[in-house]
Amino acid sequence: MAVATPLPEVQTAGSRTMRAAVFHGPNDIRIDTVPRPQPGPGEAVIRVTLTTICGTDVHILKGEYPVREGLIVGHEPVGVIDELGPGIVGYEVGDRVLVGAITPCGQCHACLSGHLSQCGHGSGFEAIGGWRFGNTINGAQAEYLLVPNAQANLAKIPETLTDEQVVLLADIASTGFSGAESGEVRIGDTVVVFAQGPIGLCATAGAKLMGAARVIGIEGDAHRADVARRMGADVVLDPTTTDVVAEVRRLTSGMGADVAIEALGLQETFESALRCVRPGGTVSSLGVYSGKLEVPYEAFAAGLGDHRIVTTLCPGGKERMGRLMRMVEMGRFDPTPLITHRFPLEEIGDAYRVFSNRLDGVLKVAIRP
Ligand SMILES: [Zn+2]
Ligand SMILES: [Zn+2]
C-alpha cells in the first residue's frame, strides 16, 4: 500500500486540521492532513487516544468492501471529549470515553425495538445501519472523531481501566460475546467456535462466560490455538488434520454440540457448524459472507430439525459498552492478550501490512494518534 511521507506540520493551539488515515482507493490508505470535525447539535468530538485496525478495514483497503474515496477509516475509538455540541447532557470536556463500533441513534424504530445495529437513523430499519464510523461517516483512525448521537454513544471509562483494556470492547469483544449471547448458550452446553481469530477468541471467552461446560475451538494456526486455550477453549481441533464434525460427535457421545458459533464467514465453516450441532441446536453466525450461502438439506434435516440459525452484528451504544467495561473492571474478562503490536498513527501503513498479512503472530494492533 502507498503511505505518504509525513510533511512537517506546524500545529498551533488553535489549529483546525488533524492527521487521519484516509481511503483513496484500493490498496491506498494513507495519512493525510484534513479538517478537524466540529460538533453540531447532539454530536461530540473526541480526541482519539487509542484505536485499532479491524478485519473489515482490511476488506476496505483491498477494495472488497466499497466505501467512498476520501473517507477516514476505522471504527474502534477510545478518547477524551474535546468538544460537545448543543443538547448533550451529563458529560464534560475532558471525560475519557469509549465509543462502540456501532453507533445507534437510540430513537428510530430499530433502536426502540432492540435492534440497535440495524438502526434506521431516526425512523425505520436499515440493515447494518448502525455501522457508520469508517463506513458511511468518517472513522476513528484519526486524531479527532465526530461522534453522532453522542448522548447514546459516549460510554465513560472508569478511572481504573486503561485505554488498552477497553479498546477491543468497541467491536471484537462485543461481537464475539454476542455470538454466544445470540446462540443462547446455557450452563452445561457444549459450544464449538469456528476460527480463533480475534472475534472467534472473544466468542470462545463469551461462551465460557455464558456457562458452557465445554468449548471446542476450531483453528489451524498453532499460535492462535494456544491463545484460544488461554481464552477458555477446553479443546482446540485443527481442521487441516482433523475431521472436526466427526470429532465433535465423538466428544459429545454422538449427540452433537448444543451451539456452534461461526466466526469466519465461509461456506465451508458455516456448513461444518451446521453439521456439528444436534437437532434443536443453534448455529450462531458472526461471519461476513459474500456470494451465495447454501444450506445442505441433510445437515438441516430437510428443514425439520428444529435448528436455529441466528446472525448478529456487533452490539453498540453506551449501555453495551458499559456492560463490557464492567466485565473487565471486575476481572471477569481480559482482552489485553489480544493486543500484540503497537504503532503510532503516522506508521499505520506498517500496521496494515503486519495485520493484513498476519505477520509476526499478530492478533490485534493498537494505534496511538
Ligand atoms: Zn470491525
Ligand atoms: Zn436508531
Are any ligands bound, and if so which? Answer: zinc ion
Helix/strand/pairing category: alpha/beta
Q: State the shape.
A: globular
User: Helix count?
Assistant: 11
The N- to C-terminal Cα distance equals 20 Å
How much is the radius of gyration in Å?
A: 21 Å
Unreliable stretches covering 5 or more consecutive residues = none
Fraction of residues in β-strands: 15-25%
Largest sheet: 7 strands, mixed
Helix content: 10-25%
The H-and-E topology, N to C, reads as EEEHEEHEHEHHEHEHEHEHEEHEHE
What is the number of E strands?
A: 15
Mean of pLDDT: 95
Description:
This protein has 369 residues and is an alpha/beta fold. Helices cover 25% and strands 23% of the residues. It contains eleven helices and 15 strands. The strands form three sheets. Strands 3, 4, 5, 6, 7, 14 and 15 form a seven-stranded mixed beta sheet that branches. A six-stranded parallel beta sheet has the order 10-9-8-11-12-13, with helices on both faces. Helix 6 packs parallel to helix 7. The longest helix has 12 residues. The protein is globular and about 65 Å long. The model has no long low-confidence stretch (mean pLDDT 95).
In short:
The chain has helices at residues 55-61, 109-112, 150-153, 163-166, 172-182, 198-209, 222-231, 244-251, 267-276, 318-329, 348-356, and strands at residues 17-25, 28-35, 44-52, 78-84, 96-98, 144-147, 155-156, 190-194, 214-218, 235-237, 257-262, 277-285, 308-311, 339-344, 364-368.
